[in-house]
Design goal:
Layout (H helix, E strand, L loop, with lengths): L18 E5 L24 H12 L18 E5 L8 H15 L3 E3 L8 E5 L2 H7 L6 E4 L4 H6 L17 E5 L5 H15 L25 H10 L10 H15 L16 H10 L6 H17 L5 H14 L4 H19 L4 H16 L3 H17 L3 H17 L3 H18 L6 H13 L1 E5 L4
Parallel strand pairs: 2-3, 2-4, 4-6
Antiparallel strand pairs: 1-7, 5-6
């Protein structure tokens, strides 16, 4: 059975067989979800010495290993233009994100409808066009560009490079409107925050959207702390790494006072070999054998890191997914160990713990341990919502609905199923309207009182 169950694949209206119904009120209107705007507290409770190393690695290097010769940031207020009807549904998400950046990072950033005033241009580009350029990218930033037509008109060797920039100027962000709402929203958050300066991704960061393991879909307190530090008056574009490093201690002590007395902790460095292994292990397009081999390598390399960290749990989850069809017992062991590692190292409420928890809940459901499945779903649903992960929320509710139905609690199962559909339409998308149609039908059923047929 699949571990992350698509929410559309669990309960059906067949649960109501054998019952007659008496209407009580009109069926509820079709509804979906949108995450409410949030503003997180400022600062993170970790060593400012560690933050300084992260800051330098995020701002003076790129994901491909290329080093940047100088600091890059905007030296003027930043205005963002998101044009086109295809992206219109995401204007509230953009507004909420820009509000967070203003309030949490202290950056003068706002939306504009004037192309002449904009520095960051957001354009809708079909997913197939993006993957034609970057096969593994869901979305990307192009420095020095204003639109897709201009980007495509250049020969690849003439595209502006991050390392050639003297300061941040114009940049284009290309988003796929035919992707799921969750994916597009996550892309929006990652690309806009990285367009402000921290262009690198680091797998060693457990609590950042700038990590290609994709556990975090919204900018975190860590991310906003880095941005807030970057836009302090001590810094400006063109500074060398050494100059920035010299100013960082006093900047971080002011920006992140809770990290002043937190001791530095040993951390394993980035590993290109591990990164390549985990990317193969997580790539559903790779063959099963290749994924298992890569998962085993990633797990071994992560276990050898000193000290081992969340990357071991990431590798164990990937290995468990790759081996589930061939060796369910081995996969279950990987899921359980990943769950324990995340829970003990990052906390029970962390998104990584919740992601491992949904795997354990699915296994409990398959094994008939319905109470355990419901317990895990209830425990981690608030975490999925807090971290704004609709796919995880839909999956947990789907598992809970199946477990409740198996226990014979049909009204509670229907309610959980209805909630899962709301989250599923946002998380998985609903291009053919199948989820919406099922939601309407189930909402009508839930709005009725179920009365046993006479004699049953």
């Amino acid at each position: 059975m699949p571990v992350l169950r698509r929410a559309a694949a669990c309960l059906t209206l067949g649960l109501l067989a054998g019952c007659a119904t008496t209407p009580r009120e009109p069926p509820p209107m079709l509804s979906s979800v949108r995450f409410a705007p949030v503003v997180l507290p400022k600062g993170v409770a970790r060593s400012n010495r560690d933050l300084a190393r992260d800051f330098l690695d995020l701002t003076f290097a790129l994901e491909n290993g290329e080093q940047l010769p100088a600091l890059l940031r905007y030296e003027t207020p930043v205005r963002v233009l998101m044009a086109g009807e295809a992206l219109a549904p995401y204007r509230p998400d953009l507004a909420a994100l820009l509000n967070r950046i203003r309030r949490e990072a202290g950056i003068d950033i706002a939306e504009t409808d004037d192309p002449a005033a904009a520095q960051i241009f957001i354009e809708a580009v079909p997913e197939r066009e993006i993957t034609r350029i970057f096969p593994t990218a869901a979305c990307f930033i192009a420095p020095g560009e204003r639109d897709w037509a201009g980007f495509r008109a250049r020969r690849s060797e003439t595209h502006p490079r991050w390392s050639e920039q003297k300061t941040l100027g114009i940049a284009a962000i290309f988003l796929p409107p035919d992707s799921t709402p969750q994916d597009l929203r996550d892309c929006l958050a990652e690309e806009i925050t990285q367009a402000l300066g921290p262009a690198n991704d680091l797998y060693r960061l457990p609590d950042s959207i700038w990590n290609d393991d994709n556990f975090h879909g919204m900018a975190t307190r860590f991310d906003m702390t880095i941005l807030r530090a970057l836009y302090q008056p001590e810094f400006h574009s063109g500074m060398t790494r050494a100059e920035v490093a010299a100013a960082l201690p006093r900047v971080l002590d002011r920006v992140n006072p809770m990290g002043r007395k937190v001791p530095s902790r040993p951390r394993a460095p980035e590993s290109r070999v591990w990164a390549e292994a985990i990317e193969t292990a997580q790539d559903t397009r790779a063959g099963g054998g290749a994924r298992i081999e890569a998962g085993l390598l990633a797990t071994r390399l992560a276990a050898e890191m000193r000290p081992p960290d969340h990357r071991l749990g990431v590798a164990q989850l990937a290995l468990g997914r790759a081996t589930l069809g061939q060796d369910p017992a081995f996969a279950a062991q990987q899921f359980a160990e990943a769950y324990a590692r995340f829970r003990d190292g990052l906390g029970r409420d962390d998104i990584r713990t919740a992601q491992a928890g949904v795997h354990l809940a699915a296994l409990a459901l398959a094994a008939g341990d319905y109470d355990v499945a419901i317990l895990l779903a209830d425990r981690h649903l608030p975490d999925a919502i807090a971290y704004q992960n609709a796919i995880l929320a839909a999956s947990l509710l789907s598992i809970k609905a199946e477990a409740l139905a198996a226990q014979g609690d049909l009204p509670a199962a229907e309610a959980a199923r209805l909630d899962s559909l709301r989250w599923a339409r946002y998380g998985f998308g609903d291009t053919d309207g199948a989820l919406a149609r099922e939601q309407v039908a189930l909402a009508a059923a839930v709005a009725e009182t179920v009365i046993p047929v006479s004699g049953e």
